[in-house]
Design brief:
The protein has 470 residues and is an alpha/beta fold. It is 39% helix and 13% strand. The chain has 4 domains: 8-103, ANL, C-terminal domain (GMP Synthetase, Chain A, domain 3, 2-Layer Sandwich), CATH 3.30.300.30; 125-184, ACP-like (Non-ribosomal Peptide Synthetase Peptidyl Carrier Protein, Chain A); 212-326 and 398-469, Alpha/Beta hydrolase fold, catalytic domain (Rossmann fold, 3-Layer(aba) Sandwich), CATH 3.40.50; 331-394, no CATH class. It is globular.
Length: 470
């Protein structure tokens, strides 16, 4: 489902580990053509709604995000066939409006909630959505969030920041926030970039910069700079930035090439050099605090190497679920067509539908699903795909070298491989610590609180050492 292998037996075993679940089964079902989802059917005492509502948080603590069912359906009893086994063909089709949240459907109560509900249903591909349902729990993800933001901004006649959706992922919460947005919106969230040819999924950069985005301001403290993962987008760091901003400013580096006419870097060395020019506009001298998520972790290491080469110190490189030894990427996976096949399922385009299109139609369809403007959307989608291709080229060609500075790997749960002797020879000062969530969910609620707390602990340690040195 969405490129992940789902072990139904593991999902069912975890369900049965819940103290209130007497019987359970899990199935894959198609909510819409090409939209495969996971559903769980559970029997709890008296069908108690509160007990049903407790199943999802229980699963989220024990399973990767992609194995948490989109629908949790309460049953009086599971149907069985003549052999005494669960008859999956007799299971009812899930009602997402009720089952996704495990709580009673609450209809929109205000004109604004009605308007948001219509847009959310369109993006998520459902008939109805309750005002208390979580966008991400209902199957939303980063690219769908971009599309939703574009549609809401157009419908409301004013920009809606991605940070607002991450802060308030329900219709009820978001409508409250939008009603008071003039006071709240500027506290942390950089505005969406605006202007001719600028994609709606980029954030506004610091004046004079191509990549540097100020995610969160703080009155004092040494700033931390975060490098992005595959695709070069940085809005996913907003929840983390808002938590770190209590102590320090937070910046992120948006990939060069997201705007038409820009050249996408195809090596970590070029990425790091470009990012450092802009970082040093904000902080001319070290010691620096660098971080990076996924492939961005090793870009941050490369940046630290380049800083050391010119006599500048890096106090910490924090790698957020990064791999020091990069996976081998086959040449066929860096072609634009292959990258498009990777993006398409994320925006709800079935593979069979994409296969019947020529390249221009593919760009246009991806743009439409992202809610990008008709006149320039295809070009914007092409830029995003080109960034992914360039990133894969950079990833496949990078060879890590010895780095003696302080490094920390904050890795998610269910990670299959931790650093071994080879990685520790390369990075002798490497510290590893597990945080809540998986590769993606560690950056989102409810797990981002634990990530921020852990990262802040390492940052504060560097602050103390720096102050003692001063």
């Amino acid at each position: 489902i969405r490129g992940y292998r789902i072990e139904l037996g593991e999902v069912e075993a975890t369900l049965l580990g819940h103290p209130d679940v007497r019987e359970a089964t899990a199935i894959e079902w198609e909510a819409a053509p090409g939209d495969k989802r996971l559903a769980a059917y559970v029997v709890v005492p008296d069908g108690d709604p509160e007990r049903i509502a407790g199943v999802r948080p229980f699963l989220a603590e024990k399973l990767p995000d992609y194995m948490v069912p989109s629908a949790i359906v309460p049953m009086e009893a599971l149907p069985v066939n003549s052999n005494g086994k669960v008859d999956r063909s007799a299971l009812p089709v899930p009602d997402l409006a009720l089952a996704a949240s495990g709580s009673e459907y609450v209809a929109p109560r205000t004109p604004l909630e009605e308007q948001l509900s219509t847009l959310w249903c369109e993006v998520l591909g459902v008939d109805r959505i309750g005002v208390d349902d979580d966008f991400f729990a209902r199957g939303g993800h980063s690219l769908l969030a971009v599309r939703l933001i574009a549609l809401m901004s157009d419908a409301l006649g004013a920009p809606v920041a991605l940070a607002e959706l991450f802060q308030a992922p329900t219709i009820a919460g978001l409508s409250e926030r939008l009603a008071a947005r003039d006071a709240e919106r500027q506290a942390f969230a950089p505005p969406l970039a605006a202007g001719s040819g600028v994609p709606s999924f980029t954030l506004e950069t610091v004046p004079g910069c191509v990549s540097l985005v100020r995610l969160a301001d703080a009155p004092s403290g040494r700033p931390v700079f975060i490098m992005p993962g595959l695709g070069g987008l940085v809005f996913g760091f907003l929840p983390l930035a808002m938590r770190l901003a209590v102590h320090r400013p937070v910046y992120a580096l948006q990939a060069q090439g997201l705007v038409a006419g820009q050249h996408a870097h195809e090596s970590y060395a070029d990425m790091a050099a470009s990012y450092l020019k802009e970082i040093r506009m904000v902080q001319p001298h070290g010691p620096y605090l660098l971080a990076g998520w996924s492939m961005g972790g090793m870009v941050a290491v490369e940046a630290a190497q380049q800083l050391r080469a010119v006599g500048e110190d890096t106090a910490l490189v924090a790698m957020l679920d990064a791999h020091i030894i990069q996976p081998r990427i086959l040449p066929g996976f860096v072609a634009n067509a292959a990258v498009m096949r990777w993006i398409a399922p994320l925006v709800g385009i079935p593979a069979r539908e994409l296969a019947g299109m020529v390249a221009k139609e593919k760009w246009g369809e991806i743009a439409q699903r992202l809610g990008l403007p008709q006149d320039s959307g295809g070009e914007q989608a092409r830029c995003l795909t080109a960034i992914c291709r360039a990133d894969l080229c950079a990833l496949s060609s990078y060879k890590p070298v010895h780095y003696a500075g302080k490094t920390v790997l904050l890795h998610g749960e269910h990670r299959r491989r931790l650093p071994g002797r080879r990685e520790r020879r390369l990075f002798p000062e490497l510290h590893c610590e597990q945080v809540q969530g998986n590769h993606y969910s560690m950056l989102r609620e409810p797990h981002v609180d634990a990530l921020a707390e852990c990262l802040q602990r390492y940052l504060e340690e560097c602050d103390r050492v720096g102050n003692e040195g001063d």
